[in-house]
Here is the input.
Amino acid sequence: MAFDNQRYITLKKSIFHRVIGNAFELEFANFLDNCPGIISFAKNNYNVKLKMEYQREDVNIHDYYADFIVKQDERNVYIMETKGREDFDELGYFRHDGSYL
Here is the structure.
């Protein structure tokens, strides 16, 4: 299977049977699973296909896949990223409307 050599955990609030990820993502998934204010969550991946388009400095459109989709209640669903801090000035990200992020 694809996840035989990958780290994973099984959690009760995840909509998938297993959450696969790096150590920090698994720690965050465990936090979400134990957070009383969270109804459910999913680890996003290429199979889930929740992506956002963004324009890089090279003016080409690229796909961005955030790490988690988190449901707090019936009205509040969040898209969350677990990466460390980056300097956005160095990354050169642009919004879809062409303005600089």
Summary: The chain has two helices and eight strands. Residues 23-34 form the longest helix (12 residues). The chain has one domain: 8-94.
